[in-house]
Structure to design on (113 residues):
């Protein structure tokens, strides 16, 4: 297994989480134009990132086993929690920490076992 492709997929997961933050920022705004909710730079950028990650992950899956995809994708929850705290100012609660620790433990059990 080539770890470079897993790192590429992990970076893609981080950018997917960042694009979710962009979509959240866009949803919190009001727009005067009829399609302003859909045609603004945050939404277009976020979906552009998603589109690029789709092709990147497809390419990476030709180099690694499919079973590692679910492990990498589950890291998105951790990234979203951290980015929502840093960018949106959301509080990290005890329940969020426990949930993310369970996700990390599951990833470790899956990859070690």
């Amino acid at each position: 297994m080539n770890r470079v492709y897993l790192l590429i997929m992990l970076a893609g997961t981080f950018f997917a989480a960042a694009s979710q933050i962009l979509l959240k920022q866009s949803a919190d705004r009001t727009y005067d134009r009829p399609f302003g909710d859909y045609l603004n730079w945050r939404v277009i950028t976020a979906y552009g990132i998603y589109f690029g990650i789709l092709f990147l992950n497809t390419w990476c899956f030709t180099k690694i086993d499919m079973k590692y995809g679910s492990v990498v994708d589950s890291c998105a929850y951790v990234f979203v929690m951290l980015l929502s705290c840093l960018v949106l100012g959301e509080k990290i609660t005890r329940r969020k920490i426990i949930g993310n620790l369970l996700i990390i433990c599951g990833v470790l059990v899956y990859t070690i076992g």
About this structure: DSSP finds four helices and no strands in the chain. Residues 3-112 form one domain. The chain has a mean pLDDT of 91. The chain has one domain: 3-112.
